[in-house]
Structure of Phosphatidate cytidylyltransferase:
Amino acid sequence: MVMCVQIKCFHEIITIGYNVYHSYDLPWFRTLSWYFLLCVNYFFYGETVTDYFFTLVQREEPLRILSKYHRFISFALYLTGFCMFVLSLVKKHYRLQFYMFGWTHVTLLIVVTQSHLIIHNLFEGMIWFIVPISCVICNDIMAYMFGFFFGRTPLIKLSPKKTWEGFIGGFFATVLFGLLLSYVMSGYRCFTCPVEFNNDTNSFTVDCEPSELFQLQEYNIPLVLQSVVGWKTVRMYPFQIHSIALSTFASLIGPFGGFFASGFKRAFKIKDFANTIPGHGGIMDRFDCQYLMATFVNVYIASFIRGPNPSKLIQQFLTLRPDQQLHIFNTLKAHLVDKGVLGGSEDA
């Protein structure tokens, strides 16, 4: 699904450049644009498969070879496209061809790179995919509702219909929605468990012991709020606290993705990116905020959630030569003995 959305968004933006710059006579322009899309996807998805399913890759000889030389193959593919572009340069179209070359690469950066981050979020657990997307949708709806009924003060010139009342009302509604949705989803392993490859069943699984993020814990309510709510403690999932950060970003920063898209459309005097969805424009019109949100979620997971992964370390350890494994074993053993975790050599 993510791949289909990515391809359609790429097509919409490339088509705008094609029409705006009247690139009808440029040789190989569309062919090279789609070729670069293929190259970048090959690189990103290859990196993802190697990173998350290392054991599977090592078991299959063709995959193992492709994984070993993956970056070299990716670079060779890109160089082929680069050389094709240079060979396609025509004297009367130099400037226009370089415009479109830059247009294609910026589109790849905005669309493909960020959709790749969505895939990473998915592998961490469906909850990291569904909650952020739902928060953006909720904020869009609630900002419209608050703006429709209470809106008086314009927010930004790029979007004249947006109001401060809608912006603030959407924020509070989205935070509340994020807390409720997170509470419901945190209780189901199918949403909280990451995708892993099971060697015993030779299949992909989404089953695990829930981490501390998804186990109910008791929190003390600040004294200032105790007199208001009448409680001293509250039981909630730690993920709900993180959901506040996600919903805050979705409601305060996420809309700027929409403002950016509005400015882009105004710059090229178009109403929508396409007419794929009747009355709503193109796919990119609906996903302008989602890509920015996906990038934030990926950065947030890497900064505050993800820690060292023992299973990945073990998988890589098992692929080493016996002498390398023995060296790591002795080093680790000596380290644990020094820390007092293991006894001396007699006990070991």
User: Anything to note?
Assistant: Residues 94-123 form the longest helix (30 residues). The chain has a mean pLDDT of 89.
